[in-house]
Amino acid sequence: MEKVTIKKLAEELNLSASTISRALQDSYQIGSQTKQRVLERAAQLNYVPNYHASGLRKKVSKTIAVVIPEVADSFFAQAINGIEAVAQDSGFHVLIYLTHESSAKEQAILKEFQNGRVDGVLLSITAETTHYNYIQELITRGIPLVLFDRVCEDMLTTKITTNDFESSYLATKHLMDCGCHSIALLSASNSLAISKNRLAGYKQALTDRGRHFKENIVVECSKIEGKNYLLIKELLSRPDRPDGIMATVEKQATSIYQVCRELNLPIPEKVKVVGFSNLQSAAYLNPALTTITQPAFAMGKAAATSLFKALKRTNGSIVAESQVLSSVLHVRDSTCRL
């Protein structure tokens, strides 16, 4: 796709480049009709202001953006701490953008960065994200971008992840070792790579123990907590309810505890629970929650380190590589074998 520049707009409209520039900046020196012509043609050609060319940005904004689904999740809070530790050492500011699991919002945020507002981007995609053309366009425009945790597996950029398949396999095996015969899995998405890998690890653990995979106890949750609460309640109200649950998203575990309390299903006597969670309070829940704890701080630090390596290169190019950091199973009372 040909890049649309001020020069291109000037040729299209038979105006000088300086007139185009002033019109785009809403200068009082340019008449309203001319401004309208320029703005309409710029919109038609999908023109994005280029701060590199204008001299307003020459790798000197000293700012990076972190685009994440939410901050309520303690994983992302810890990852931000890791990112800021590296950014501060490099003399950079960090801007946090929340997508709230909306791919449309994610797309709008990344489009905004095309004008050179930030030097680089760290991105963890939404549960709704199914196509990546707008992410690739940002990279094509020369903005270094690193993916972490939730990544686009086929994209040629640096990706920082954890061992989701192995972690899910280990958690499922642990529940079976603790006496569970029917293990449910709460998923976050049917498109996210991390969800697919966690589901694959769960299935493989069942297969290796000669268990049959039951699709009806894999529950795809949404970004609406109230809806997820009802899905979990329906699952645990069945006559053939599961006696073990793996929550692949942190806040799902809280809902499980709430439902079990309401249905008078004591944990771990009636239901054993494992959660992918970085909650420091997991050890103080009643009962203490068994968790798969991700190396969130280290992942944030690794993502930021990779981005700053790219920013130091003359052309700002990013290396297409993957780094996989290991998560840890912390066994606590929620899976205690009685």
Automatic annotation (TrEMBL):
SMART domains reported for this sequence: HTH_LACI
Limits of the HTH lacI-type domain: 4-58
GO molecular function: DNA-binding transcription factor activity; transcription cis-regulatory region binding
Source superkingdom: Bacteria
Family annotation (PROSITE patterns): HTH_LACI_2 (PS50932)
UniProt keyword terms in alphabetical order: DNA-binding, Transcription, Transcription regulation
Gene3D superfamilies: 3.40.50.2300, lambda repressor-like DNA-binding domains
CDD domains with a match to the protein in the record: HTH_LacI, PBP1_LacI_sugar_binding-like
PANTHER family: HTH-TYPE TRANSCRIPTIONAL REGULATOR GALS, LACI-RELATED TRANSCRIPTIONAL REPRESSOR
Name of the protein this chain belongs to: LacI family transcriptional regulator
Organism of provenance: Adhaeribacter arboris
